[in-house]
Every structure is written in C-alpha cells, then in structure tokens.
Amino acid sequence: MKRRTIMLGLAAGLCTWPCGRGLVLAQSSSGPLFSFGVIADCQYCNIKVPKTATRQYALSPKKLTACVEHLNRLDLQFVVHLGDFIDRDFKSFADVVPIYDKLKADHYHVLGNHDFEVADNLKAKVPAALGLKSRYYQFRYQGYRFIALDGNDVSLHAYPVNDPRYKVAEAVHKKLPSGTPTWNGAVGRAQLAWLKKALDEASRAREKVILFCHFPVYPENVHNLWNAGEVLAVVGESEGVVAYMNGHNHAGNYGFMAKRHFVTFKGMVDTSESAYAIVNVHEDRLEITGFGRQESMTLPWMYPHLVPYGVILKIERTPSGEWSTEQQKDILARDREFWTQYMDRLTGKEIVLPNTPVTEICDWINRVHIRRNHANHTPVQRRFLRSYVSQRAFSKLRLSIAKLYDWRARNIDSLKNTLPKDPEKSAAREQQLNMRQSELLEEADFAFRQAYALCPVSAETVHEYLTFLLRNERTKEAQLILNSSLGMDPSDDQLKNACLQQLRIQGREHFTLGNLISARSIIKIGQEHFPRFTTSDPILKDRMTFDHSLKQDKYRDAFKHISDLIPAKALNQRLDWNSLISYAGILTGHLESKPEDKMLQVLSAQVFRLLPVIAGRQFQYRVISKNDYIQLKSRFLVAEAKLRRQLTEQTPDRPGAWYELGVTLNHLQQTNETIDCLKKAWELSGLTNAPRSIVDIRELILTTNALNNLRNLPEFKAIIQKP
Predict the structure, then answer these.
(1) What is the largest CA-CA distance in the chain?
(2) How far is Cα 700 from Cα 26, in angstroms, rounded to an integer?
C-alpha cells in the first residue's frame, strides 16, 4: 500500500491558512484531480459612472473577454459564474452571453438578484437567456457532486409584482427582523427538499459535494440568504459537503464551520481591476488561485484514514480500514505521551492531563488569559501565552487529531451493523467494538481539551469542541466553554457566529432524536448568550413550541402543528419530512416519560403512520432505540441497491421487482420515487389508468386485486390507510 507522510507545519513559512487564518496541512506534490474556473458578479450594464465609483459596469465586457481568453488556455473541466451576470437591462445579456459562450470548457450560471432587475414582463425569460433549463440543478465529475442553488426562489426581485409568488415573498420578508435587506432572497421549501434528496444521494454514492449559490449563508452577514439557517441545517446533515461558494458580497468573505469551507468570491465589476479564480481539486484540499482582486487560498479537509503520531499525520492513499485493538492502544499511548510533553512546555503539564476536568481548564483560562496572571509560568510559556499566532497553530494541530479520533469513534457504529449471526461471537464482537469506541471517545475528549486550552478563542476549535460536547449531551461543560471563550473577546463575531450556528443545529438535532432534556438545556444556553437565539430561527422556534405544548398537556395546540403539516386532503403533496421526523422524535421523548398517556398515543399515531419505516415495523405505540432505527434504515438502503442492480441487469420487465423497489423506497420516505416505481409496476402488469399520486394508488389498491393482492400486504398498509 502506497503511503504519504505529511507534516503539520509549525514554522510560519511552511504553510499558511487562507488569508492568514491559521496553519494547514503541507501540500502534497501530486497534481490536482481536475480544475474549474469561478467568476462572480460580472454585472454588466452599459452606463457611465464616475471613474472614482467602485462599480465600473461598462468595463465588464473587456474584463470578461480577457478572463475567457485566459481560461481557454488552461485545462479546465468547467467554469461557473456565481450570479449577477448583468444589471438593469435585459438587452445586456446579448452583449456578454456571447463572450462567455466562447469558453471551450463546459460553463454554467447561477442566478443572481441583479439578473432579474429587468422589466416585469421579461423576468420569466432570464433563466433561458442564460441557457438554464432549470433554476437549480446538479452535475457530477470524478467523485464530486456540484449543486447549483437558486437563492431567488423566494424573493422580491424575481417575479412581477402581480405574481402570487411576489406576494408570498412579501409575507416572508415582513416576518423577518426589521432592517433585513430586500435585495436578498430565500431557498423555497420544494428546493430545500430537492437539496436534501441530492445530498442523501451523494452520501450513498460516497461523493464529495461543492455547493454554488449567488447568496452566502455563512459567516453571518447582511448579504446572507433570508433562510440561511435552514440551508445550513440541511447541509449540516450531509458529511460529504466540503465547500459552499458564492458571490453577491463584492468585498469577498470566508468562514469555516463543521469541517466546511464557505467562500465568497469578489465581484468582477468592482474597480478597474478584474477578479476571478481557478479552483484546483486535490485529494485532500482545494487550491484556489486568484487573479486580479481575488486572493489565493488553500482549503484542506480531513482524511478519514489519517494515523496520528505527534505532529505527524500519515495519510494512506486508500483507507487504512479498522484499527486492531493492539494498533489502537499503541497509537493512543504514543500520541498521548507526545502531547502531554508538549503541553508541559507550552502551558504547564498540570493544565491538561487526561484527568483534568473542563472546570479547571476554564478557571485556568480566566486566570491566565482574562486576568493576565502569568506568575507561575516560565519565560517560554509566557511568550507562548502572549502569542495568538502560536496558540492558534498548535491548537489547530491538536484539533485535527481530536477530530480524527471522534470520526473513528462514530464510524464504529457502522461496524456494529455487521455483527456475526452466531450469538456468542456477536456478543464478543460487540463488546470489543464498544471498548474501542469508548477508548477513542475518551482520547478525542482529551485532545479536544488540549486544543481548547492551547487557544480558547479559536473559532474553529471552540466550534468543534462545542459540537462534540453537545452531541454527547454534556451541556454543562458546553456552557463553561461558552462562558470562558465569549468572555475573552465579546466582539469576536466569527467566534460568536460559529457558536450560535452550532447551538441551533444541535438544538434541532436533539429534538429530532428525542433527547428533550439536552435540547432544552441547549436552548437555555443559547438564550443566555444570544438575545435573538430562537426568534431568528423559525425551525427551532417551531420545535420548541411543539415540545412546550406537549410538556404543558396542551394537546389541542400540538394537534394543530400536525394538522398544519399534514393537510387531510393533500396526501399527494410533498410532505415536510424534516418537520415530521422532528415531531416524531419529540413525541418519542415524551412517550418515554408518559408511556400510558392516551392523548400522546393518539398524537403519535397521526405522525408515526406517515413514517412507514417506523410505523410498519417498529413502533406500534412503543419507543425504538436510535440504533434500531439506524440499522433498519441501513437494511432498506442495502435492499434498494440490490433491487436497482437486479432491475438493471436481470429483470427490467418484471412487475414484482418494480413493486418491491417501490415498497422499499416507501420505507425510505422517498414518496415521488415510490409513485414512479408503482406506476411502472402497473404498466408492466397490463393494467390501465396508471396511478399519478398516492391518492390514486390508494384508490387502485382498494379496488384491484392485481400484483398479489396489494391491499393485504403489511408493507403497503401505510399507503392504503385513510387520512
């Protein structure tokens, strides 16, 4: 097996984080897998402005021509323009589209707000003018999935004033905090559902994902999407997303959260200087080479198969697989010994030993960093504790190893799904895996604590450790971390934004998992530190309201939530699965404390019967464990892959196979695909009047004995039940 060894650099000149944001993995010598071009905000308009004006609209064709000529000399897979191709006049498309179309590589557009700044009767023609068949779309290349979003989906600029969608956008904007810009927009419900499906498909295919949109979502900024929090929540559920790229904010911006890079590219239209970039995609990073005003930067991500040893990380070209018990113990012992020595030199060994609690670390931070008491430190330690650059560098090094241990610990859950059939072997194997998982989590916690002590104001470190603590329901320690870090620098917006977003994501997640005590604790922490914690997050506010209704026995209010989500006569509409699953989780949490409550059982029936994977197989008014649910879903995913392969290679014309795939997809809550499969089954059976929706399917099942008496099959009862 080929192996590369990469050293995490400590010297300032070895390697740098983009825009001076910390240290990264030193670059490997191998070339990129492929490359693509990025342009943002060409924003051409044939108007004269003073030479001192920032936006030089009339210069854009000249800059775009030079850019295209340069890109045509390079080996690029594609080029993407991130929105605002024109400004104000529909005729402007005729001036700049032909220039862009001279690109030899495939080239794409993302819709911007200024693209729709045309006459009302021409707004509907804008996508076609840019050559777009759909306002949002995706494409794939070499193990990557690229997803282009439309942030004008809900907006006040994309539709005529007499259009119903304009009225909807008006209503949405009125509910937003006062002063929210009208020139931003939001991703609509249907598009969010489409995005979730695309990300789920990417996860199953083990693809990395890069998202394109005109509007940013992070860090918090006046230019962000109206529903940036909702988009981040959907993105946060996918491990495969490595980067989000956008324009709109012509000054540019950058943020890093939850192992994902958020890059705002500078606008081409600004000043007499151009701005565009080449993105080189490597196995372990993105290399962005900027031209003109656009800065260059390196965006690395963690490999899932790193092996730590001090500040050395060995990267296998193929996954190294499961660590043996002996291998794991050896790696953990050597790594712990190395970093204990380093902590002694930098901060004092007693600060973070394996048994040093978070309370002591926070007390030490308050004394040393806030009160500046360095009386007990050596001259070397004092220099380190006064150097933010050094603190951040060492913190990032230790953090990378902490995340590796955390990833491996969580990955052991998937190994538990493949236990031997023999009961004795299964029990022994499960015990072994549990011990390994416990060791890894303990070591991850140790590494996180050291990383945090090394730099308690690193937004990345605080964010990652906060995530770890909240995921493991350690809310009291999370509160201590927040108190210490935010107390050091209350004006650090990047740190505050990182903490705010993670509290929101984890609050929603714990509600969905039925961990009500943790969810409530997280909300309490968020409200203490951020005045608008819940009011500015409609999703979290909704979950809180539903939980509060159940907690206060206000079942009428809880029924209203469910009835609003699931209209009795609209089962053929796309259901809001995220809300549905969250309500199921909250109900599960309440059922655990009040299993005999009849009203809770009735409410549960309303929700659970619309979750076939739960209602048909597991629930029956009792609670299932999270692992049971994960294992069950995993089995259905395996079945789906097997059936698709069978249909492709063996029996493409067998009605029963299409029916079985439809049932499986129904269990996976893929409603539209379920309908498509059942349609196919009906057609191949020679039946007429193929169903067009779940309503049609229900009626046909009730009146037809075809396909092995569908109405009698227990797997299909979730569909034939009356609303």
Answers:
(1) 87
(2) 62
Q: Where do you find CATH 1.25.40 in the chain?
A: 631-723
CATH classification code of 631-723: 1.25.40
CATH 3.60.21.10 domain span(s) along the chain: 32-300
Which tens digit of pLDDT belongs to each residue from 437-493?
999 999 999 999 999 999 998 888 998 899 899 988 899 999 999 999 988 888 888
Place of tokens 């599960």: 588
Asked whether the whole model's pTM tops 0.85, one would answer no
pLDDT tier, 151 (very low <50, low <70, confident <90, very high otherwise):
very high
How would you label 105-131 residue by residue, b for 16+ Cβ within 10 Å and e otherwise?
eebbbbbbbbbbbbeeeebeebbebbe
SS3 for 6-39 is EEECCCCCCCCCHHHCCCCECCCCCCCCEEEEEE
Q: What angle do CA 456, 458, 459 make, to 5 degrees?
A: 120
Please, what's the b/e burial string for 603-636 (b: 16 or more CB within 10 A of its CB; e: otherwise)? bbebbbbbbbbbbbbbbeeeebeeeebebbeeeb
Cα separation of 664 and 658, whole Å? 10
Single-letter code of the amino acid located at 154: V
Higher pLDDT, 696 or 252: 252
The span from the CA of 512 to the CA of 200, in Å, is: 17
Which of 481, 395, 403 minimizes the C-alpha distance to 445?
403
Question: In angstroms, how far is CA 705 from the centroid of its own chain?
Answer: 44
HEC string of 424-452 equals HHHHHHHHHHHHHHHHHHHHHHHHHHHHH
| Residue 634, CA atoms < 13 Å, CB-side half-sphere | 12
Q: What is the mean pLDDT of the chain?
A: 79
Average pLDDT value for residue range 646-660: 69
- φ, ψ (nearest 5 deg) of residue 245: -120, 135
- The listed range with the strongest mean pLDDT (75-89, 406-420, 668-682) is 75-89
Q: Which distant-in-sequence residues (6+ apart) come within 8 Å of 217 by Cβ?
A: 224, 225, 228, 231, 232, 235, 244, 246, 262
Nearest-angstrom CA–CA distance, 701 and 606: 22
Which residues, 6+ apart, have CB-to-CB distance to 453 below 8 Å?
A: 343, 347, 351, 352, 361, 364, 365
Cα separation, 480 vs 483, in Å, equals: 5
Q: Tell me which residue has tokens 């001076």.
A: 20
- What CA–CA distance (Å, rounded) separates 108 from 210? 14
| Distance separating alpha carbons of residues 302 and 335, to the nearest angstrom | 18
pLDDT, tens only, 154-177: 999 999 999 999 999 999 999 888
The fourth-level CATH superfamily of domain 32-300 is Metallo-dependent phosphatases (3.60.21.10)
DSSP 318: S
Q: Which two tokens stand for residue 689?
A: 């009047």
